[in-house]
Design brief:
By secondary structure, the chain is mainly α. It has a domain of 30 residues. It has three helices and no strands.
Length: 102
């Protein structure tokens, strides 16, 4: 794809602990060859999580609730101002970026 575009093409890996390029310098054809290489590099990339105390405890909070098993019915129960239209300046939703051609 990089050969077909007139701008820099940058690959971003999401949800990854060890970047593929750090695990192996060659093209891997099977997960079973890549997994041990990732395992060897985990300590280089994993960092311990810090335990954080919430600013406001939530365990004692009580909320009014309603049945959400029927999505349309649940939305109809919300106080939504239907007079407000789309902004027009931003794209949103599942199809806003996914189907754009490069």
């Amino acid at each position: 794809m990089a050969e077909r575009v007139d701008c820099p093409l940058i690959q971003v890996e999401g949800n990854v602990v060890v970047p593929v390029e750090a695990a192996s310098s060659m093209e891997e054809y099977a997960a079973y060859t890549l997994r041990p290489k990732i395992g060897q590099r985990l300590d280089d990339f994993l960092t311990p999580l810090e335990e954080k105390v919430p600013r406001k405890p939530s365990l004692g909070l009580h909320f009014e609730s309603f049945d959400v098993s029927d999505g349309d019915e649940a939305v109809s129960q919300l106080k939504i101002d239907g007079s407000v239209g789309p902004s027009g300046s931003t794209a949103s939703g599942p199809y806003s970026q996914r189907h754009k051609e490069v």
